[in-house]
Design a protein that fits this description.
Elements: E1 2-3, E2 8-17, H1 21-25, E3 34-36, E4 39-44, E5 47-56, E6 59-68, H2 73-79, H3 86-96, H4 101-107, H5 117-126, H6 132-146, E7 148-152, E8 155-158, H7 163-167, H8 171-175, H9 182-192, H10 195-199, H11 206-214, H12 221-231, H13 242-252, H14 258-269, H15 273-286
Parallel strand pairs: 1-7
Antiparallel strand pairs: 2-6, 3-4, 4-5, 5-6, 7-8
Helix pairs in contact: 4-15, 5-12, 11-12, 13-15, 14-15
Enzyme class: lyase
Protein name: DNA-(apurinic or apyrimidinic site) lyase
Family: Belongs to the type-1 OGG1 family.
């Protein structure tokens, strides 16, 4: 707990095509980012990433500063999915399902972020039957309670807590998060699972991840797919929420349980599932509501 180094650890510029930071951060895959004065501040692990994007003739320039713990340009690129061959992915999805062309055009610029698995698990347990602003405020409150902070530009940003920080919190602090029925899922996770348990899954095949995650109290089909996709960067993950259900019905005229639709998505799109899911989600939530 307490202050971390506030020194600038790294800074660099990246130019790339077909990338939108604004869309990438606002498409429901990550919750704790702050848009202040033309910059985005993104707490990630033991770092805070400060970002500014400018777009000129289809080329996005990202100015990146890393505070707290050092992150290399390569590490940053892999966190933000900048190494995904997006042209190939988009062409391939359109080949499989030409009907998704409009959703892809609309969602152009989204990349899949890979977050730390433990934080992802807590985030999506908090997300059950909740709207994004509520999820975000719960997660921010949790980070403030454990008080690991980095100061940048005269502002304090709270890092996501480690498990041991959360274990030290009095139960009243946990109650103050107003998690409702999710509180028992959160407490069970913190008491019974370590960050290492989640790190150890990193190189395991999809089925093994799925079995481990769904054995955790409160983690069902949707939450486990979110963790697989957003926490492990496994692009065969296909989370199904109400927007995806609406999208699959509207675009493909299919209905079914979360489990059935997850299997259908993964079977249809294979290693492109995560992107297909994200495009349908963003399109339905932003454009087709």
């Amino acid at each position: 707990m307490g202050m971390h180094s506030t020194n600038l650890q790294n800074s660099f510029e990246i130019k790339l095509k077909d990338f939108s930071l604004e869309k990438t951060l606002n498409c429901g895959q990550t919750f704790r980012f702050f848009n202040i004065g033309g910059y985005y501040y993104y707490p990630y692990g033991d770092s805070v990433i400060k970002l500014q994007e400018s777009v000129n003739n289809d080329i996005t320039t990202l100015k990146v500063e890393i505070y707290g713990t050092y992150l290399s340009k390569d590490e940053f690129s892999s966190i933000f999915g900048l190494n995904h061959d997006i042209d190939y992915i988009n062409k391939k999805i359109i080949q499989i399902t030409p009907i998704l062309k409009e959703a892809i055009e609309f969602s152009k610029g989204i990349r899949l972020i890979q977050m730390p698995p433990y934080e992802t698990t807590i985030s999506f347990i908090f997300s059950i039957q909740s709207q994004i602003p509520v999820i975000t405020s719960r997660l921010n409150k949790l980070a403030e309670l454990t008080n690991r902070q980095i100061e940048i530009d005269n502002m304090k940003f709270y890092l996501f807590p480690k498990r041991e920080d959360i274990l030290e919190l009095p139960i009243e602090a946990v109650h103050s998060l107003k998690l409702g029925f999710r509180e028992k899922f959160f407490l069970n996770l913190i008491k019974n699972y370590t960050m290492e348990d989640f790190e150890n899954l990193r190189d395991k095949p999809y089925e093994e991840k799925k079995n481990f995650l769904t054995s955790i109290l409160g983690v069902g089909d949707k939450v486990s797919e979110c963790i697989i996709l957003f926490g492990y960067g496994d692009l065969t993950g296909f989370p199904v929420d109400t927007w995806i259900k609406k999208g699959l019905e509207k675009i493909f005229n299919v209905r079914g349980s979360t489990k059935k639709l997850t299997e259908l998505g993964r079977k249809t799109f294979g290693s492109l599932s995560g992107y297909a899911q994200q495009y349908i989600y963003y399109y339905m939530r932003t454009f087709k509501r």
